[in-house]
Amino acid sequence: MTRFQHLLGPEGCGTSSHFSRRTLLQAGAGLAWLTPLSQVLAATSQEKSSKGRPKSVIVLWMQGGPSQLETWDPHPGKMIGGDTKAIDTSLKGLKIADTMPLTAEIMHEMALLRCVTSKEGDHERATYNMQTGYRPDPTLIHPSIGAILCHELSAKGVEIPRHVSIFPSEFSARGGFLGNKYDAFKMYDPTGPLPDLPKRVPEDRFDARLGDLDILEASFARGRRLDLEKKKTLHRETVDRATTMMTSDQIDAFNIDGVPQEVKQQFGDTPFGRGCLCATQLIETGVRCVQVTLNGWDTHANNHEFQSAKAGNLDAALSATIKYLKERDRLDDTIVLCGGEFGRTPKINPAAGRDHWPHGFSVALAGGGIRKGVVLGETDPEGQKITAETKNAVRVEDIHATIHDALGINIDKDFQTPIGRPMAICQGTAIPELVADA
Amino acid sequence: MWLKNIAFIVLATVVLASLANWLLSPPKVEAVDDPVIVVADDFQAAKLAVDAQFQEVWQARELQPAPQADDLTIARRISLGLTGSIPSLEEIRLIENRPDEDRLAWWVNHLLEDRRYGDYMAERLSRAYVGTENGPFLIFRKRRFVTWLSDQLMENRPYNELTQDLIADSGLWTDHPAVNFITATVDQDGTKEPDVAMLAGRVTRAFLATRIDCVQCHDDNLGGDLKQSDFHELASFFREAQNSFVGIMDKKGKPYDYQYLHAEEETTVPAQAPFNQHLIPESGGTLRNRLASWVTHPENKPFSRAIVNRVWAVMTGRPLVEPVDDIPLKGSFEKGNFPAGLDPLVDDFIAHNFDLKRLIRLIAATEAFGRDSRADHEITAQHEQAWAAFPVTRLRPEQVIGSVNQASSLSTLNADSHVLTKLITYGETNDFLQRYGDAGEDEFSMDGGTIPQRLLMMNGNLVTERTKNNFVRNAATRISQLSPNDETAVETAFLCVLTRRPNPVELEHFTDKLENEEIPSNRSQDFEDIYWALMNCTEFAWNH
Q1: Which of A247, A434, B224, B290 is most buried, taking the most CB atoms under 10 A from its CB?
Q2: Where is the DUF1553 domain (chain B) (predicted)?
């Protein structure tokens, strides 16, 4: 039992049970490249039906605004189409851009929204809007999908942060009014150990340091509020959680060094691809939400060239993520969301770029009970704006409602903000076409 | 030969002893150039008026107040509030060399003349004025803006005049840095013009501590009587501000059209204030000039309440009225029933020509500011709520890194520090802030810390670099090598990091640690460990 373990409450994971599971696992075969913990969990998951397992989300975040015309919604031969060609996909009648041939092979596993519309054309505001389902409000910060998920679902057995952001952008997913403890844990390329996790000194010296800390904490507590730690600072609890994480086998899920090269290659072996591979490991370890960011979509110049390069990165990583999750029987309880803060203008500017366009862009979804093989909405081949009133238009808040609904979160529930203001989990309504049993 | 050796040993001993004496003993007090403390006759009366209100509340709620905190604890609060870091060992020696009766008043004055005050307070206030976003490219110069604001604070420019510049100044963002308040809102993707709605929101929150922006999209449906038109009529004061090649200027007669919720069509919105309309000048200057006059009018008390509440919050970590930018205009406050301390501070601020430095001196002198956060009797949340005990509040990331850096240096890190030190500190600060997590505009959040923050402090580069064996740079190493004995060494480390001396239990524990031979270590390593523990405890990360 670690120090301050008693403060973690009944949901803390005892290391002893953890080790026993690990020991059991080592008898397992066929999953040798997985980290020990992932092997245990993977073996367990093979035995269980996916029914009843808590659900998770992987957000593939295309920071900068991906062009719908160079990815999910090409219009070849039209004025707005540029140089992008369209190719057939595994979903009959659906064509996507030729920049994404691997994804084209698995489109039958996905749902595609081609008519997403919002009112935010600024990167920061639009990112906030897409990540929280709310437009920026100066009076409070809304929680992101991952924060809500962690707030609503049990933490049982998980010794590492359950909300993780890989390659976080400057607008990282926040806990907002739910509290900082729901902020995403930020990490970068999952090769090598996580920064700040390895102890700087040998074990016995580190333990002695913690002993010193106990003396100081006892002094500080003396004469002060009895509930200071529990109700306000959470300092010792956080130290304890951090040290638990440092000594947990689950931190193996944060790095992919042990994964065979051929598996990495399937994900593209780019930083983003490695991030996606890591995201699948984290999900198997019990993490509820992982956001992996692919930056560089803000192509105000040389749009086709840059978008094609980015789409190539995305193509390998996205298709491998979905295939991997399906092979591991994890796709039914993991929603994969792929999108950015807005799309790009149908009109190509004089610098051969496309500018910001929130009036009709694409978001792709897969897994987690979202109905697959659905394509909702279409954009105008001449580039007219899509508004919320356009047929089959999808509002950002409706995507949030759909995801929360699929995750089993009661979207009619209200949160209380710190000043007692009731705030709905999300403003939208679930998109009926995407609800699997609709 | 042996004579030479003896001479060398004697010389080396003298040099080392002198060095140790210079590093660890009290530096000479050099306060003669500091300003003479001028306390106006009515300063004490104002302080007593504030204290009386707090005492009345404590009595009414039957709260036994905590005793007065010791001088070093209060000095730490003052330093964190005015410079964003803890006092250095050098400064602690200076403080302790002052006579008891003027020690803290001198310390406040000393810091108010230190550039760190201007820079830190400007950084904190700028968050309310222009937010924490990067803002529009080229036309928004955050650094220039903050430097200008720092200059104004150092000069102690009357706060009403400073605010008038922010609202109504014209010109280029470089030559007239105040206009960055306007350019920060320019919509570069859309109209290319200042955003009148955002400006109205900023004015009401930053300068009036009212959240009228809640009615931007619809009338107040939470029981208030504010209308959507109240917000847009205020926004209309900014309608003539426009962005041009000569910077921000006003185009007379430019209309502001807006379609209200449920309205059939747009209407032209007149400029009007949501309350105290009689204080708007009938004519003279631009619309923005008239708005600035109304906002800063001595009778428009929400203006002074807003800055008093914010400065109190910067100095203590918690505002008198929460949230800091939402002091209700209605309800019990309408009858003048404000929280203890606010009204007398506001009255004194207005009576003394919006003097920010006087306000700071007054806050630091109040009983509430000086209460301890602990007592022999039980301290409860109610004590903290009523300021019968000083509330324990989370340090901002800038305060944490400022304190880590300061604790690792025996001398004061300030504008006089070596340029290399400042450069290294600047680079490390940015990296640390990014990793630790900036709280943004949510300045006074009461949330606890996070796991990444703890990991960064326990295993991160900064604490490791600032505590490891490095005689030239690190206080921990110097203390370990130069202290005459273990007790002095432990005491010095506590003073450097926690601005206090160790209690008997702590002293015994850490001196025992130094003598413990079970874990093989050297002395500088022991002090690296002691510093690590001191920098990782709750006491270091929270204001108390």
Answers
A1: A434
A2: 288-412
